Structure formats: structure tokens, C-alpha cells
Description:
The structure holds two protein chains of two kinds.
Chain A: E1 3-10, E2 14-17, H1 18-25, E3 39-42, H2 49-60, E4 71-76, H3 86-93, E5 104-107, H4 112-125, E6 131-138, H5 147-151, E7 155-162, E8 168-177, E9 183-184, E10 193-194, H6 197-220, E11 229-231, H7 237-247, H8 269-280, E12 286-290, E13 295-303, H9 315-321, E14 324-325, H10 329-335, H11 355-360, H12 362-367, E15 369-373, E16 379-380, E17 398-402, E18 408-416, E19 426-433, E20 438-442, E21 456-467, E22 472-481
Parallel strand pairs in A: 2-14, 4-5, 4-6, 11-12
Antiparallel strand pairs in A: 1-7, 1-8, 2-3, 6-7, 8-13, 9-10, 12-13, 15-16, 15-17, 18-19, 18-21, 19-20, 21-22
Chain B: E1 10-16, H1 27-42, E2 51-55, H2 68-73, E3 80-84, H3 90-103, E4 110-117, H4 134-137, H5 146-161, H6 165-184, H7 197-201, E5 205-207, E6 210-211, E7 220-228, H8 230-235, E8 242-251, H9 255-258, H10 267-280, H11 285-288, E9 291-293, H12 299-308, H13 317-322, H14 339-342, H15 347-362, E10 376-385, E11 388-398
Helix pairs in contact in B: 3-15, 6-12
Amino acid sequence: MIGITSYSGYIPRYRLSRMTIVQNMAWYFPVIMAVADGEKSVANWDEDAVSMAVSAAYDCMTGKNRKALDGVSLASTTLPFADRLNAGIVAEALNMREEGVSNADFTSCMKAGTTAAISALESIKAGGKDSVLVVASDQRRAKMATMSEMFFGDGAAALLLGNDDVIAEFKGSYSVNCDFVDHYRGAGKEFDYGWEERWQRDIGYGKIIPETIAGFLKKTGMKIEDFDKVIYPCYFRGTHTGIAKGLGIDKEKVQNNMHAVCGDTGTAHPFVMLVSALEEARPGDKLLLASFGQGCDVMAFEVTDKIKDFKGPRGIKGSLANRVELASYQKFAKFRDLIVSDLGIRGEANPNTALTVLWRRRKMLLGFVGAKCKKCGTPQFPPMPVCVNPDCWAVNEFDEYEFADKEATILMFTGDMLAASVDPPAVYGLLGYDGGGRTMLDFTDCELNQITVGMKARMSFRKRYVDTMRGFTGYFWKAVPRVEGGDA
Amino acid sequence: MATGIRDKVAIIGMGCTKFGERWNDDAEDLMVEAFEECLADAGIERKDIQAGWLGSCFDEVNVGKSALPASMALRLPNIAVTRVENYCASGTEAFRGAVYAVASGAYDICLAIGVEKLKDIGYGGLPEFSSAMGTLSHLWMANMTAPGGFAMLATGYAAKYGLDINDVKRAMAHVSVKSHANGVLNPKAHLRKAVTEEQVLNAPQIAYPLGLFDCCGVSDGSACAIVTTPEIAKSLGKKDLVSVKALQLSLSNGTEFAYEWDGASFITTSKASTAAYEEAGIKNPREEISMMEVHDCFSITELVTMEDLHISERGKAPQDVMDGFYDLDGGIPCQVDGGLKCFGHPIGASGLRMLYEMYLQLHGRAGDRQLKDPKFGLTHNLGGFPFMNVCSVAIVGKYDG
């Protein structure tokens, strides 16, 4: 049996009420009022498609052996690197093995996630691989006061595919590929360019999804009534319900498009919706998933008894619950770099990234891998040639030690107004890790007035810096204090 | 068996510019200003100097690398000059080079000069230093500034002793109020305006919990010393010699940052001061030290340093501060010249500026702020961050031999 062996998703903590957009921007384009219900998820300023992918992937691998992965595929249309394997960054963050694995980016299309999953399942079926992690993530920027700004949310989702302890068995797939360009983003362009909505709805979503589902049913001999949940993205509310009606699917069997809680997360959205469905699924449930983008992929799954033993990680449900309203539209606009503000001369400092250092220290810098002394057992970071324990000082006698999955206690902290930051004050502090070791990290997803010495924190992979001059994004891990709510 | 530096070297001349925003002066102007005062004070000629040490920290915005800037600005007679850089201890390092060279017998008369031109960067605070910490650090280290690095110490200190952060802040405020009061008395100080505790507490926040007045001045300036052996000093007709009693340095090895530390102390300062007292033959610093210039880059630094110098008991520095023990009329006057807080902090010059004040006090030349009959003066620098730093401690006093 092959199929999904673990699943998770990640929705960033900030939510922007669509009424906030309307209040700030409807003067410019009143039509946005038509979809002003609910809220959209907004990636923090230090998040992007890769960092959110790592968040979803890491969560998905909770309790699983990351070293056993035979590959990771990353699907996104907002990858930071045009030439550098973005999935490779995710792989290093997961501290995967480097030998005998095959990692890949799937990009340029909203259905790239399902395409990656089908490809992974086929390779597992063929016997070449046992376990592949497929992650989809998008953090799309939209121009102010557009329908895209209203519809788009940020998020990621991950599926672990394999043949061991399958939670949802893969029951087949069917795809249609056609060059239907409802929107596109030209190479080097910042924003999407889209055609008339009526055409997108009627000839795009409203025709291609049902036709592909029909093609799948014909190919497999399955019936639409067999399915307990039918899952497909479509941010046009009328069209979303219209597709179900046309296929004769009961209302309660249609998976919600999540417009109200996070918006459409692009390439990630079919998986975000699928993970949401899995989080509510029972053994025996049959799920039909469709994606949309220059055609459509349809995939079918049947939930197994194993779902009862599956200790769900944080997932979509957990990250949706970890919610803070972003009350300031200006802050949102700044986070997405839609407006220009002054970082000050201090913020101009822009050393390049020594790629030699990044290579030598890739485990440390991307995987947050430290060292554990073989002699005295002290976990330590950063890894150095000589043990940090003054009673030991053993030389080059270490095992790898991962800090990314450890909880830490805040020992001291500050909120720094002088440090150049997109979201001042820059909050950082010294952390002591459960099980030993300590280091100093930037904090994120918190407000200064929520933090106290002694508070617990977990680790999160984030953008450390963006070198706009040379087009390089540097990543590292930050501490997320366990705060409740917030006042952003 | 090493015998230490005590009374082996005498200071025969010192000079110090007015610190401040010296918009119209280059680093070279500042060095010459300090040097001319120092040379006149020593009563020797340029050609009598046999070797020199230059302390400067931020070469990126300063005089540049090597000791050539000093050798050329001062037109030194093609002698050995060495640039030293050890963060905020750079000035004291220059002094240490000159003193050790004389003590070794390699030279008779040596020069130490420190300079920093910080007001050529275009923004407040110290220069951004992410790229000055090596190619690896800026790829992962927290987005930190100097105030932020030290501000954390206040949260660690309050947590360790179970203190209300507002009580710690009030003691920190008094640290600054005292230094401002002292700065008023010093014509060479950068900031010469008294402030109240309320002003300090209500100032804009720089890095929680530090406000504007918890942070020292960022200044341009230069300071300089000429040293020789006590014998040569006497032969030059010098009287009431000021001699070096102790010179100690201690550097972090990464344990605070990555292994063990209470987050409420400077391990290096504790070690360097213990060694300095032993070197100087001081048994009870609280009783024997007459005055101090410590590295008050931030009020919390000074507060905690009082404990690591073994003068205030652990956890009791706020009480001593509030009792006025470190005020000008207190048990051990501290930051008599205004400190980094008000005299200013041109990094490479600061260690020598502190020694300049001790030297003036020991010679009874400190004007309105002259203390009565001081015996030992202690100076202290702390470069880097509480969790990773370079600490220097120097003790000077009246020559005893």
C-alpha cells in the first residue's frame, strides 16, 4: 500500500481582516468590498515560501526519521532562487542525508504541488523510493486594492508519501494539461497579470475542474458518490459551489475553500485543504482532491485505520488557532515591501554571503545542527573544534546534535530600537535548551511586552537577511516564545 | 616566577583632547592635539620616544588599518609603531604595549596613543558591526546592537536576584545622574548638562529596558600617554611619580555564551580585577581603591561591574548606587570625569582617557572635581558584549619605591 504516511501544514500567525483592506483601500477600487468577509493569513516579514515550507515540513516529520527520506520536493511559484535548488534549502533545514536522495523544485504553476505528489507516488510505486516528502508553499505578493490582494493568503502544507504506516491510501490520479492562462507572472515581474474574472470562472475553474474529475471517474470507474470529501481550490465563492452542484456532490461533502480563515494559499492550497480534510477524517473516508492551473490534477485517497494512531502535529488546525490579528494595513504593506520606508544608514550595511562558509557550515546554518561532546556529553552551539565545557576541552570529538527540535528557556532578552529591522524593536535574547546547550537568537512571532525571563520558546526557520543587491536570501533559525495572542 | 608590573613603569606625561562631536577635525588633528599636550607634560622631545602603540577600533570608519596613521600624523622618527585593536579595550591595549616594552627593558621611553573618529558615519550610535565579526557570525547571530547586547543584562540581573525591573531601572538612572553631575565639572567632557532621575526614566527607549540616558555618548577624541622607568623619570627631574600598579586583561572563551553563565555578571571582569588587586598588592578593594573610571557604556554595565570588581556584594550594587557610594562625595567616587557616559566614548581613546583622569587626580590637577588625596585609581574597559567580551583592568597610584 502506498499513500500519505504523515501530513501537516503551516499558516502564518498574522491574519489581516479583509475589512481592514477595505477600510484602507476601497476608496481606490470599491469592488473589493464584494469579498470583504473573513481574513487572510499574512506571512511575517521574515517568512517566505521556503521558510514556510520548512515549518510545514518539519512539523510533518514530527516523530518520523528525517534521515530516512529519499527525497524532498518543493512546489511553489514564489521561490527565492531561480537557480539554486530551493528544495535543497528545505532538505538542509531538515538535516536530511545528502547521499542517495533526489530533491526537486516543482514550480511555475498553481497545480505544481499535486504534480509533485503524483510524481513522488509514481516513483514510490515503481520501487525506486520508499519515502518522499512533498511540500507546497506560496507567499504571493499582490498589488494594493486588487482582488488578488483580497483572495491571496500565505501558507504551506506537507505530505509525507511512502509505503509504511499509510494513513491515506493513494487510489489513483488523472490529469489534464492545457495552456489556459487565467493569470500569469512573467519572468522577472513582481506581480500577476490576470484576465477578466468572468472568463476565469466560467471557462477556467468552472469547466476544467469538473471535466478533469469526470475524466478521473471514467478512467477509474469510481463514482462521485463514493467520496466523502471532494477538495478543490477556487476562491470565487459562486463558482466553488457551482462546481459541486454540477458534479452532483452534496454540500456537506465539499471541502471549504478557506476563504474565511486564511485565503487562497496558491500552490499550497490544494494540500492545505487536503490536510484540513485529513484532520477531520475517519477510517474508511474517501477523499478526492483536485488542483487547478494550466489544467488540473485529480488524486484520490482512502483513509486507513492508521489515522486513529496518528498523533497529529500542529498542522493546519494548530497553526490556524495560533492567530494574531494584524490590525495595521500599513504594516502588512511594509511586510510585503509594497511601500517604501527608511531603514536608516545603519540598515545599509550589506556584506555579501561567503558561499564557501555557507558550504562548510551548511548543517549549522540551515539545519541548526550543533555538536555534542563524545567525552562529556555537552550539547553546544555553534560547533567549534574544542569542547565548550571548561572541565573537558576535548578536541574534535563530537557527534551531531540538532537544536531545531529542542525547546528552550529564555534566559535574558531585549527589544532593540537601534537595530535596523523591518518590524522594530528587534527582539532577541539568550536561550538555554532543554537537554543542555545555549545560544543567542533573534526572536520572532512575539511582541516585546509579552516576553519574560523563564518563558519557553520553540525554534522556527526564518529569513535571516535579504541581500537585495545580490539577490540572496539568507536563512537561520529564530526563537518563537510561547506567547498567547498579541497586539500587532 | 613572574613578578607582575607593579611599580616597574611610571607615567611621565599624558594628554587628552576634549571629547565630543568634533565635526571640524580629522582623527589626525585629534591625535596631534592629545600628543602635543602629552609631550609638553612629559617635558621630552619627539626624538626621545623609542616605540609607540596606537589603539583604534573601527578601522572601517576611522583612520584605517596599521599604525601608519599615528606615525605619519605625529611625524614620529621612523620608530616602531604598532596598531592594536581589542574592541573597547583598544586604548588600554596600546598602554599595555608601551608599558610592557619599557618593563622588558627593550626601550626606555614609549608612547601609547588612542583615537577614534566615530562621528563620520552619518548616524547615531556605534558603527554597524555585523561584517566586523567575521564571515560566519553575520549569517546567523542575532540582529544585535551594543545597547541591545547590554540591555539583556538588565533582564538577566533582575531575574537572578528576583528584583523588580523598575527598581533596577531606578538604580541605573542614578548611575547616569551621577555621571552627568560629574561631567558638568569637566571642561573636556562631551556632555556637560545635569539630568534628573525622572528625566532618565522618562527618556525614549533605545533597547528595553535601556533609555537614551542609559547609553553613553558617542564621541570623537584622542588620548595619549608617555611611559618610562621610575629611574629614568627621576633622572628627568620628575617628582611625585604616578606608576602602574596592575595591568590585567581577561577574555571570554565562549562559556558564557554557549555553556554556563548566570546572565547577571561579567566573568572576565571578576577574574581580571582579582588578578589586578593581587598584582597591585591590594587586599580590600572597597577600602583601598580611592577612585574608579569604569566602562559605563551603559548604566547597567556600570551597575553590574561594581559587583565584578568585588566592591559591591553580589546583588547589592543597586543598594550601593542608591546610597551614593559611587557619587563624587561617596566611598569610592566613580566616573569622576563624567565617564563614558558624559566624557564620551571614542573607543580607541577611552582606556587612555580613563588613565588620564587618574593621572590628573593623583597629581592634584583635576580642578573642580579634585578628590582629596587619592592613593589608588582603577580603570576598567569592557569591549564586546556581556556574554562575550574583552575586559581590561588597570590600577595606577603614587609610586612606592
